[in-house]
């Protein structure tokens, strides 16, 4: 078999294996260390999260060993793993394996060849590193031969790392199977060879000068002239021991014989590096690190369209390789998964080619093990019922770990299914002393989003046990479709989404499609048009061709390309327009107080989100406190400018019963809110019991979580009269199951409301596990209500305006066809 045919066969096999290998296996983790694929969609069960801030991972692990933490944020070293495997620590600490991380460490290289920063280069922003030796491809190629990844994995990472040879993390689908030691494209790994590095430097115009160090012979005269010294400013992280060692080791290689490149080692913590490297772009090398997503689109970090200045951007290295850019665009526009993987392979080949090499990926953490407390560690007054009980509900997500969104939603000590509203506390550790920004528009640091990600949400989420699968969070339904663009005749992707109507922001204001439109269209446009950097999610929404509000709960987004990754573009954070638009407008006008600066630490000091948790207090160098988003709870943060905010409804899934109402027939009206006159429609009411209570406390155990409900269903007509459809019917719903019924109705015009109210009436007591037995406790949800209202209009399709839904941002029919509708249609 010839080499080309063999490579094609290997790539095909690797394609199949890559999709199998990324399917996560770890899941809900039980005290006996068994796991299954269960998780709950409601919560939080706990009352508080106390995040303790430490100076290092070692200080955090010491606190775990001392019984001060329930959850940690960082993979353990081999030394700690061995220590925790023996008594007494194996009795108090559970070690959870979550495989290789969706993240990696990299030697960033400043590629910028221009005298100015920006894309295109802007004379207003001089490039502080011009002329830049790292802009020469041969120089970067030589640096690649100075990196011994296996040495790094073995001697610096202590064997708890996976060597990286391309721009994809090893756990991601589509990692090139032949760009590796011993692979058919081993040459693209640029094996460690200092002699080869010296040869390439000589050939690339970087000879050794009279002082014994390399210089850049820019004029080619064979002698060192003024201004031709080469001294690389290398920013090395001082607050991460492994990156600190990596930086020093790599600098040693560059300064050693026969390479002899002079290095200025600059040790900074994360904030110092962020200012100089990512914002000022005033560096040559940096020990970078990234947490990445599931999709194999990590090339965004080196794609020239994602380089700009001022402000933070993904491609702060200013990598600009035409072959790489071409194939990355193919990644973003792939129509099928095989096309996607083919483009990803080609992209990696381009990235690793000698005339490209924009950065040096080094290592990914893995196999990763995180330490968590087996039992609830808190022992403050009021915690007596919880202290020492086994934790339940930890969701260990492969590639990310146990400190997941779902863990903090589900976690509770055995036989305490809900906190008392004040005392049940999850103690979580960060290996950093402070956050950079509690600003959801510009925050990009891991620990910022470990916090913000519990406060803010988006419309869809990834299944924690099968990360390639998207599932609805805010949505009743979503559909990916294709459309033909009349401007160029090409087929492109689109997404339709139907928003639930029972979600509110922390201040009680309903979440609407107007908030989605603002966050993804209006806000980025206003920021860019007024000279502010785009928000961090800008690289996803730049691919929106158009955004249509079909009715108050239905939207349609048309992308400018056909892509198998279409859902990834509509998964990002959504912010409340009624909070953020005034902030932006004051910043544009220059009338904002200093603490409200749009690029500042916390422009919204109340952090009004829609998530299950709310910020209560942040004390740099000490702790962060989050409280559960419960109905009627008032919170005032300690940030400057904050005020007391009451959440009247709490998190929309704060209890175990979920209710939904929507139209299912005729098919063309499914999920819509506008019904043509003289039409009989079928409504579906679904009531789901989201509570999962396995007994015994082990993977796959049967569920003992039946709930008995009393349900009421009725219609409110335009004149205020009501029609009762169901009046107090009693139904028992097993755990994890859904009760569905349908109603056929015919309506006169105009606005109607279909209402459902559900009350939990039993059982009065529930069984739950405790140690190795089962005990009985009062049902904490007994007597609680779940209400849902579905609003719809019976009118002709031309009736598009004249009224509004929830707020004036959302036009709604008024059942009168007049000039208002003509104007609305013209705007559309």
Give a short summary of the structure:
The protein has 828 residues and is an alpha+beta fold. β29 and β30 form a beta hairpin. The model is unreliable at 1-26 (pLDDT under 50).
Roughly what percent helix?
10-25%
What is the assigned CATH homologous superfamily of the largest domain?
Dipeptide-binding Protein, Domain 3
Q: Would you report the number of β strands?
A: 37
Mean pLDDT score, rounded? 92
Count of DSSP H/I helices: 17
Report the radius of gyration as a whole number of Å.
Answer: 29 Å
Overall tally of structural domains: 5
Give the class-level CATH name of the largest domain: Alpha Beta
- The end-to-end span amounts to 60 Å
Second rung of CATH, namely the architecture of the largest domain: Roll
